[in-house]
Design a protein that fits this description.
Layout: E1 16-17, H1 18-46, H2 52-69, E2 72-75, E3 79-85, E4 88-93, E5 97-100, H3 109-121, H4 130-135, E6 140-142, E7 146-149, E8 153-156, E9 162-173, H5 176-181, H6 186-204, H7 225-240, E10 245-257, H8 259-298, H9 306-321
Antiparallel strand pairs: 1-5, 2-5, 3-4, 3-6, 7-9, 8-9, 9-10
Helix pairs in contact: 1-2, 6-7, 8-9
Length: 337
């Protein structure tokens, strides 16, 4: 027994113009009414009883006309309808407007099941649920762009740190046959796969650069938003292709450390910022001291031995690197007293 699933492929088809078929069916209905009246009036007038053959024919045409009138449907721009005839896929209509198709084009199994569940849940309720209303739309699928605003997820990054992350995905249905037949519920499929892809992506990157990793050698969630978004979109497209869905955009909307380590990471970032600032201050102070000593030596303002030069360097470093204001002591004697 072969249980292998086959991949569906969309076939775009055209159906009859709704306005033309409306004229035809209205004419057919009026003709049937005229035939019914004629079979009664003319039969009684000529033979004293209705024309049985014409009466039976008009009676049979009446339900046919009623059934044919149920084949009308409309499509808005960026909307499609999947055509199913007794379980067989006949194609997809993508042209907007007023159309007429085979009245036996039915709802798909998933939508029909949703309709049954919605009607069962609606018993005793004042209104029909949205899921049942959606099922009654006769296999119409919106081709418009949709937003999936994901919930905040708590995951571990590449270094094992718990982080909170969320994303927004812009997607649309590209292949209606795959969306209808290859997955059970394509909207729920997009939601579940988006969450799974986001969890997998977060585990592949670190939240921020580590102490032992140069900033230019590692892609992180916080510093490389564009690269991470591109990777997320590529993974989502690979996952959702089997559902006939195209991902237009995927971006992170929330990124933060989990509350249990947020304070510790904040103190770490503050310490790193202080260290970086101190490095710049020390580098600038050394440059200024070096420049001062060179200027004094070149202009021969004062001659300093090694001990006095070291003392001057020490004093200048204290003045330049100190956080508080320095109050110098003026020496009224010589340098050696």
């Amino acid at each position: 027994m072969n249980n292998k699933q086959t991949t569906s492929t969309e076939r775009v088809v055209r159906v009859q113009n709704g306005w033309a078929m409306l004229v035809v069916l209205i004419g057919l209905s009026l003709g049937d009414i005229w035939l019914f009246i004629f079979s009664l009036v003319d039969g009684i007038k000529t033979t004293g009883q209705p024309h049985i053959e014409l009466l039976i024919l008009s009676s049979l045409l009446l339900p046919v006309c009623i059934i044919l009138l149920t084949g009308f449907f409309t499509l808005q721009p960026n909307e499609a309808r999947v055509l199913l005839l007794f379980g067989a896929y006949k194609g997809t209509v993508r042209t907007s407007g007023f159309h007429w198709g085979n009245p036996f084009y039915s709802n798909g199994p998933a939508q029909f099941r949703t309709m049954q569940e919605g009607v069962a849940a609606a018993k005793g309720a004042a209104s029909v649920p949205s899921s049942a209303r959606k099922a009654l739309r006769r296999n119409k699928i919106s081709l418009r762009a949709r937003n999936l605003n994901g919930e905040k997820l708590k995951v571990n990054d590449k270094r094992g740190n718990p982080v909170e992350i969320a994303t927004v995905v812009v997607w649309r249905v590209e292949d209606t046959a795959q969306a209808m037949f290859d997955v059970d519920d394509y909207e729920n499929y997009v939601r579940v796969q988006s969450e799974s892809a986001l969890r997998h992506l977060a585990s592949q990157y670190s939240y921020d650069h580590g102490e032992d990793t140069p900033e230019s050698n590692e892609i992180t969630l916080r510093s490389n938003v564009e690269e991470v978004s591109q990777a997320l979109r590529a993974e989502l497209q690979e996952r959702l292709a089997k559902a006939g869905v195209r991902v237009d955009e995927a971006r992170l909307t929330h990124l933060a450390y989990a509350p249990e380590i947020a304070q510790a990471m904040l103190r770490r970032q503050q310490a790193e910022a202080v260290i970086a600032a101190r490095k710049k201050i020390v580098f600038g102070a050394v440059s200024m001291v070096d420049m001062a000593l060179k200027e004094l030596a070149e202009k021969q303002v004062v001659q300093l031995d090694d001990e006095r030069r070291a003392a001057m360097v020490s004093n200048l470093m204290v003045v330049l690197c100190g956080e508080s204001e320095v109050h110098p002591i003026v020496n009224t004697g010589t340098l050696y007293t």
